[in-house]
Amino acid sequence: MGKPLAAIVLGVLLIGTWFAQPISSTSALTPRRAAVQYTPPGMVTEGVVPQAAPTWIAIEPGVLARTMLDPAGVRAVNGVVVPADNRPVFRTDSNEPGTDSPGTSFIVGHNYVDQSGEFIPFSALEKVAVGQSIVLGTPNGTLVYAVRQVIRVPKTQLDARTDLVENVPGRLILATCDTTADGRDTTDNLVVIAALAT
């Protein structure tokens, strides 16, 4: 079996195992396999979508195509969140998104140009504007969020921004390092704040 095929098979097995396991001991629902429907941009979340860890993200119109999240999730360690690879990742120490979510959900990712010269997925956050739609897929259904703010926060001031970690029902925050147009780091974080569109 070739390396790419072996990696795909292993990835499918790991994702299948991940769907079958509870997300956390505090999770009210155990995620289950379900068909995930794509919601066109400009639409709203319809019906009840119980809380669950997100599996994919898209930003419409045309900012970020449907992109799978790292199923392992990530937690802050000593106040620092570092994704394991180039995929966006859900912070498992935040609230799982859903129409019944009591607080803020966080998805983080790296932002740079990889060795092949391609921008990785969360580099697309540089193009996000107020009013655009963020679509999240979960095992329980699809959620649509409307972008309310796009801000840059100096890394040295991030700890002081307690407003960003407050629990606000139905709020989604995407965060990455800010970069220049050619992919070089700045001293800021780029933060996208969105609200559930119902």
TrEMBL record:
Gene3D superfamilies: Sortase. GO terms for molecular function: hydrolase activity. The active site is at H110, C177. The keyword Hydrolase applies. It comes from the Bacteria. The keyword Calcium does not apply. Keywords: Hydrolase. InterPro entries: Sortase, Sortase_dom-sf, Sortase_F. This is Class F sortase.
